[in-house]
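Researcher:
Attend to token order:
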Amino acid sequence: MMTDRTHRFTRPGAGPILLLRFSGDLTTKADATRRQMTRRLVDNLRTSIKESGRPARVTQSRNRLYVELEPATTGGPSDEAMVARLGRVFGVQSVSLTHAAAWQSLEDVVREGLAFGLPFVRGKRFAIRARRMGERHEVKLRSAEIQEQLGTALRPESAGVDLSDPEVTIHVEVDAELAYYFVAKQRGAGGLPLGTQGRAVSLLSGGFDSPVASWRMLRRGVALDYVFCNLGGRPHQLEALAIAKRLSELWQAGTRPRFHAIDFDPVSREIQRSITTRYWQVVLKRMMLRAAAAVADRIGGLAIVTGDAIGQVSSQTLQNLAVISRATDVPILRPLVGDNKDDIIEEAKRVGTHDLSEKVGEYCAIVPSHPATAARLADILDEETRLDPAVLERALAERSEFLLPEVDLAGWDDAQLCAKTLLPGETLIDLRSRQAFDAWHPPGALFLEFGMALRAYPAFDQGQRYVVYCEWGLKSAHLADLMRREGLDARHVSGGVRELKRMVEEAGGA
């Protein structure tokens, strides 16, 4: 492997090399476990590289991973952008953009280090940090002599050597074949390679807490799908979907997460109709856990992740959390349970969801003036006997699923994608539930369940014109966008059924 890497890294016109270090979580594992996790890490890195659009090759030694980038092209990601991208792959502790050169003697290492280091140290106080990689018999150089001789060579052009507070540090790492030179290490995500610790679902609300909780579990190698219990219609779902999309893009290379949207308005209304007011929030959270458990069962998820933190709101007192947790046998992971709100908000900036979460409004319509802060399980079980179980079952049956890597929110409100009027000869496709379709649909509309439509649209007749619609215009936007990419003439009703009824009336329909 070393010989092959040397050959490829030193060919004329080769691009820069990124040096990636394993996280401490990975290096402490037993050899068999480490090999398994490293294979998954390499697969995730290759997926991230492929998604970037910039060709690169990944190789490895026992202690390092190396990514040889093809030279950058106009419009493609820069070297620095690739450093940031691969630093977001879990299992990577740090990334350095390096210059690599073959060596046979100490003089080779110093000569190449002088050429690399001069532009950085000129007129500045500097230090050299050298490190030997691999077995002693393979690298017959000492770190101290590299530091001494390279420092001596660079000193005349600098402001002097300063080992305690240098303005710039030149790093040299030497293995049996190559010397790597760099001036910076960018912090990586650390943790365990994504997908090595099974699957779970995350209850995503759109606020600051649940995305940060999700990120923490992704960092521990858990692959996540997102379950969203919608209480605010189209605006709320778009906000939550944007956050899930951001998590997917930034942090979930190597998996294909889904966003499971469940209309919880009927569930909320059933709770308000049947449950004593002070228990509304506790029962609502229990119903959300049951919904998440149902999705977890469907996808093989082993746990539910929530953004709960003790005492943050009335439903998150320790007593209430204990009662809420009894709603399901599926393990509940609460990685933020002991965190302060300001720390969570600060962490959201690193995760990349802060600005999106900051815009999310409060959509919960059942906030009682005097909520229970110490509900008893027996009382809640008694209250829940008055609920109609069919309401939650129906909401789960009518849930929508979005494959996040295929979601393109930027084009969903494009004027060319949105139908403003209904024209003769267009095929109308209804993506709602069968019950909703049977209750009302425009004359001639066809019913096609959303999941089936996502599988069937590539076979649609290219000679037809299509208008698709759903409850709020989210499923329809996604399908219409995919259809247009397939070359189909497709539009959607961005305002959902309410807007469609107006359009039907204007067209003189029933």
In short: Residues 199-406 form a domain with the Rossmann fold fold (CATH 3.40.50.620). The radius of gyration is 28 Å. The first strand starts at residue 17 and ends at 22.
